[in-house]
Amino acid sequence: MKPMLFESRDLGKTEEFLNRAYTKMQIGGGPSEVRTRISRATAASISVDRLEIGFEMSYDANPLGKICLCEVYSGTIADHATDGWRDEFGPGDLVSFAPPDQPFAGTVQRSTYSITMLDPALLTQVAGVSRKRNAPVRLRAHRPHSRDAARQLSRTIAYLGDHALQDPVVRSSPLMLSSLAQLLASSVLAAFPNTTMDEPEGAAARPVTIRRAVAYMESHLDQAIGVADIAEAADVTVRALQSAFQRHLGSTPLAYLRQLRLAEVRAELLAADPADTTVVAVAARWGFHHHGRMTAAYRELYGELPSATLARD
């Protein structure tokens, strides 16, 4: 879906748009001062919106059905209430706006802020809670556990909204979009207290775990898989999988998966005719949506730039 822009000075049209874009809600404000501007970058199961509300707007909304993150740039969001708590957000705050299944209400006081939404199922997939256990992951607090964690999540959101989701090549690649969705979900879990922190370490990982995981990776290199899928294929939790890889390979599962895909990129570049292909096209086929990072990882692994590999006689 292409980036979208909505602008209005009409309260009714603004409410109508918010109902379409988010969930059924009622808003209020002085009709003579209404000024709304909303831009949206979206693809698959994630979206990043930038909102400018140039008036005091009250809102009373139904559940969103999604994880909803709000980062305030200017102004204040006051008397925000949901799920038994009430809070006020100002510049620099990045919060989980409401649980997916809970209504919320409050007042936007001439603010600019972002709204980032993702499917709650992504948290469970990335966290690696086995689908057999039927235990969805939930956030336990609406504020991040540290300022550093909040800053890292903010950088991820900025990268998605300002760059990745604006790129038509990225939006047309299911593998890239899956990677971005996993990046966002991982950043959310790293930033907020959540139910995965209750999961015990479990039994010590064994080498058979590595063999199963690597076999699964190698047979799914061209598919959108994440650490949760790998853990389930190896019949362990994500935590046990990560422990096994760190202990036996000195790596993480996703770092190892990246090396396997880089090997495929190298093999394809060595076999390709420079007149008929490009590094960017080959990298995209193997899920690398950020050319600069791919190039740096490739050079660290192989000691040369991918363009040099392609240009070999």
TrEMBL record:
InterPro entries: AraC_XylS_family_regulators (IPR050204), Homeodomain-like_sf (IPR009057), HTH_AraC (IPR018060). The keyword Transcription applies. Residues 211-312 form the HTH araC/xylS-type domain. SUPFAM superfamilies: Homeodomain-like. Keywords: DNA-binding, Transcription, Transcription regulation. It comes from the Bacteria. Coiled coil: none annotated. GO terms for molecular function: DNA-binding transcription factor activity; sequence-specific DNA binding. This is Helix-turn-helix domain-containing protein.
